[in-house]
Amino acid sequence: RPQIGTAEDFAAFAQAVSEGQTDIDAVLTADIELTGNVMVGTSTNQYAGTFDGQGHKVTYNYSIESNYSGLFAFANNATIRNLFVEGSAVSTAIHFGALIGQANGTVLVENVVTNVDITGNRSGVTGNSGMLGANYANITFNNCAVLGPMGNPGSSMYSPFSGWSNGN
Predict the structure, then answer these.
(1) Overall pTM > 0.85
(2) b/e for 78-115, b at 16 or more Cβ within 10 A?
(3) Which among 42, 138, 154 has a CA at the least distance from the CA of 91?
(4) CB-count exposure of residue 61 (10 Å: 0-12, 13-18, 19+)
(5) pLDDT for 28-66, tens place per residue?
């Protein structure tokens, strides 16, 4: 399983998932700071592995223009655990999640803390969240926390754990 210890390792992991290696199990071996909008998974190739942060931190400063964005843009039958996510995100789109943009299938998130300052620069519905932008999954959060601020006076649908849920 891939050992991710640098921003370059994380970008290579994200690239492998976007090219169809969706069931990669990976571990984070150090705190990393991402540059640019590096995200794992696409609508076609959704992350389906186990990602263990091993208590490390991923920091990013995203500028979001695409719907369903997050550190893991798309997760489907995935497990994400033992991770801290910090930084900021300015979004002009809908369904940004500090951890996951869109969840499908069965997803487990455990021992994850996000502290991301989320600003929605879009009037009307946003569906932004400290964890999950849009939920189409049977998702479980165990021992998780959302600490970062979020909002914009002209926007709606902000929530700590799920910006929007399809009845799940």
Answers:
(1) yes
(2) bbbbbbbbbbbbbbebbbbbbbbbbbbeebbbebbbbb
(3) 154
(4) middle
(5) 999 999 999 999 999 999 999 999 999 999 999 999 888
